[in-house]
Design brief:
One of its GO terms (molecular function) is ammonia-lyase activity. Keywords: Lyase. By secondary structure, the protein is mainly alpha-helical. The chain folds into two domains: 167 residues, Orthogonal Bundle (Fumarase C, Chain B, domain 1), CATH 1.10.275; 301 residues, Fumarase/aspartase (Central domain) (Fumarase C, Chain A, domain 2, Up-down Bundle). Helix content is 51%, strand content 4%. Strands 1-2 form a two-stranded parallel ribbon. The chain has a two-stranded antiparallel ribbon with strand order 3-4. Helix 8 runs parallel beside helix 9 and helix 8 runs parallel beside helix 14.
Length: 494
């Protein structure tokens, strides 16, 4: 049971609620806070206009509500409940509900107290409405939350509750939290896979020396994992004076993504815990109580953090493809120019100089086909890294002039993470084959990683064959690598 309304809702908790269907409950004191704010907004609405409660919305914000407040509320919900396109996965809807309950529990919306227990019941029962993908522009997930309002039992929503329920980016924040959680796990695996590739290429540990990775936390964290994997590891070709960028800058390319993921986590946590309602009831229960109309809900920081994470992941994925190229070359610096008669038979245990880590006849293709798989996935990652924040749109007859497209940014990051799993799986297949072919003798840290991760469960056969099954198994192994011993105690990888 996860308590909502404590002021802290982590991405990991959102994941447990959304994906593991863990039940939720309201923390002590939540309903008291909500009741105080509700009483204040009812009092203040008798003294001044309150958007969506005593007025229309959008371009009708100057028009007072003159009919029955409950009919006005129903019209608001019904008129804003349209969504289009394929439905969001149920886990995204559950994440949205968890975030919205946490936001409302802050006590700034003015919503009536019965709404929160009803939302908790809806989430725990998992009887959720279908919500189409196309509904939000980053100015509030109005359509999605309107559908939630229509799914609540009759009589739960009181007069004026429609706007306080709908005025939130909860759907986008929930989707962003899940994408960020997947990104964290992917990066934890990516660091381990890069370490395996570095070992298979007999990379110099100097580029991962703690004193040589620069001032930023991400590269330092990556180097702290990879450096011990290379220390004491022997075998393979002679180490170079310095390695190509795919190896030498791995701490920086992966570290940038680690830092971007950390920034995304911080932005999501701040927005979920802030209760940025519009209008907001501030200082409820004090002489300073007031209703404020504002733009702090505008999701530009979220869009920027999502775009930044997608761009950094694209750079990290390019680094993975660079290492794949190195793994597939007979010599990472010379290229595939040697004559076939100079290639050693990998079964003899001699030095390996076969292109694409191939075995068998001289015309064998080895891992050549996997280059195309990784390249196709990289193309999607790069396309998804085009900043959603570059877009804008004017809606509401000029009232809403700067849509930020945070929902698009969240979808792009989620799609990028899915494609990056394929790129990483390809690198893992190649790295494990290189470790086998080049008879690498692991040091203590690398041996521990190999034992705990189970990566040698990948098939040993190296003759030309269909590698689709190898890739599927490699993707499954990424989950194990994400929990490798060197990630223990490192929240940036969670």
């Amino acid at each position: 049971m996860i308590e909502l309304g404590t002021g802290v809702l982590t991405g990991a908790q959102v994941g447990r609620i959304a994906r593991d269907r863990e039940s939720v409950a309201l923390a002590d004191g939540v309903l008291d806070r909500v009741a105080v704010a509700h009483r204040e907004v009812l009092r203040l609405a008798g003294e001044r206009a309150v958007y969506g409660r005593t007025t229309g919305v959008g371009s009708t914000l100057t028009v007072p509500v003159e009919d029955d407040p409950l009919r006005h509320q129903h019209r608001l919900l019904a008129s804003h409940a349209a969504t289009g396109g394929p439905a969001h996965p149920p886990e995204v809807v559950r994440a949205m509900l968890a975030v919205r309950i946490e936001q409302l529990a802050v006590g700034a919306s003015g919503v009536s107290p019965p709404v929160l227990p009803a939302l908790v019941d809806l989430l725990n029962s998992d009887e959720l409405p279908s919500i189409g993908r196309f509904t939000s522009l980053g100015t509030g997930d109005i359509g999605a939350l309107a559908r939630i309002g229509l799914a609540l039992p009759a009589g739960v929503l009181g007069p004026g509750d429609a706007m306080p329920l709908m005025s939130s980016n909860a759907l986008t924040l929930g989707a962003a939290a899940l994408a960020g959680l997947d990104l964290d796990r992917l990066l934890a695996a990516a660091v381990a896979v890069a370490g395996l590739s570095a070992a298979g290429l007999h990379a110099s540990p100097e580029a991962f020396d703690p004193g040589a990775v620069g001032p930023f936390p991400g590269p330092r964290q990556v180097a702290a994992v990879i450096f011990p994997l290379l220390v004491g590891t022997t075998g393979g070709p002679e180490r170079r004076v310095q390695d190509p960028y795919g190896l030498r800058t791995a701490a920086q390319t992966l570290g940038l993504a680690v830092d971007a993921a950390g920034e995304l986590r911080a932005v999501i946590a701040a927005l979920v815990g802030a209760g940025l309602e519009n209008p907001a009831v501030l200082d409820a229960g004090t002489p300073r109580a007031r209703v404020v109309h504002h733009g702090a809900f505008h999701a530009l920081h979220l869009t920027a953090a999502l775009d930044g994470a997608a761009a950094a992941l694209a750079r990290a994925a390019a680094g993975s493809v660079n290492r794949l190229d190195m793994l597939c070359r007979p010599d990472p610096l010379v290229g595939a120019t040697e004559n076939p008669e100079h290639w050693a038979d990998w079964e003899s245990g001699g030095p390996v100089t076969r292109p694409y880590l191939a075995a068998g006849p001289a015309t064998s293709s080895g891992l050549m086909g996997l280059e195309y798989v990784a390249g196709a996935a990289l193309g999607e990652i790069r396309a998804a890294a085009v900043p959603a924040g570059l877009q804008t749109l004017e809606v509401g007859l000029g009232v809403e002039q700067d849509a930020g497209f945070a929902p698009l940014a969240a979808r792009q990051l989620a799609e990028s993470v899915r494609a990056a799993r394929v790129v990483l799986a390809v690198e893992l297949v190649a790295a494990v084959r290189a470790l086998r072919l080049r008879a690498v003798r692991p040091g203590v840290a690398l041996a521990a990683l190999l034992d705990s991760s189970g990566v040698f469960a990948l098939p040993t056969g190296m003759q030309d064959r269909d590698l689709t099954g190898d890739l599927a198994l490699a993707e499954d192994l990424l989950g194990t690598l994400a929990g490798h011993p060197f990630a223990d105690g490192r929240p940036e990888y969670r």
